[in-house]
Specification:
With 110 residues, the protein is an all-beta fold. It has strands spanning 3-9, 16-33, 41-56, 64-72, 78-80, 84-87, 94-97, 104-107. 0% of the residues lie in helices and 59% in strands. Strands 1, 2, 3, 4, 5, 6, 7 and 8 form an 8-stranded antiparallel sheet that branches. A hairpin with a 7-residue loop joins strand 2 (16-33) and strand 3 (41-56).
Length: 110
């Protein structure tokens, strides 16, 4: 599969949703952690889809998380994204989405 359009949405102090697309039905895996290149946690869904969405929970507020997404098709071919990152909200409800090259600032509670 070919992975495209990796984004992070609905970031809170304790959770975030990672979304992406593949060009063929495949499973959904997000590996993540607080150190670049070290993914200590993983959440997966074995359903074969082309539009993927995984909710990360039990995150730490005001923390940078690094992650990759992986998808494997029915023929056991696996694709992996480049590393991305996001920062969970702080007490004021702000987060920085850096899944793309340009940071996106969302100030919810100002």
């Amino acid at each position: 599969p070919v992975i495209s359009d990796v984004v992070v949405i609905e970031v809170t102090d304790y959770s975030a949703i990672v979304k992406w697309y593949t060009d063929e039905p495949s499973n959904s895996v997000v590996e993540f952690g607080t150190t670049s290149g070290e993914y200590t946690d993983s959440i997966s869904d074995s359903t074969l889809v082309t539009s993927h969405s995984i909710k990360l929970i039990d995150l730490i507020p005001e923390t940078t998380y690094y992650f990759v997404v992986k998808s494997t098709d029915s023929s056991d071919n696996t694709a992996q994204s480049e590393e991305n990152r996001f920062i969970t909200e702080n007490a004021r409800g702000c987060f920085i989405n850096t899944a793309s090259d340009s940071p996106v600032y969302d100030r919810k509670n100002e």
